[in-house]
Amino acid sequence: MSVDVRLVLSDLSTMAATFHTEAENYRKMHQNVKPAVAGSGDAGCDAAIKAMADLIAGLHDKLSDRLDDRSDKVKYAHDSMQRHDIDVHGLFDDLMKDRT
Known about the structure:
The protein contains four helices and no strands. The chain has helices at residues 3-28, 30-33, 43-82, 88-96. The protein starts with a helix and ends with a helix.
């Protein structure tokens, strides 16, 4: 295996681990982005504030899940390249597959 390929594999491995680690770190911050909702004295306003807080917490969870998904995708591309199933073009295709 050439030095260039080993370097790419090392970078992919590091990237996958970093995405996974940061997804966990981001997930741990959940309580920081969803503090208890203070009462305003108006039930309608309290409901709207709670709905917004729930929405923000949901988006936070979704982003941490997306980071984990990206980690899995990079790991898959790494493993495919290591087995010689793909070349650099296949690597790009694996990383961009189902990109949303």
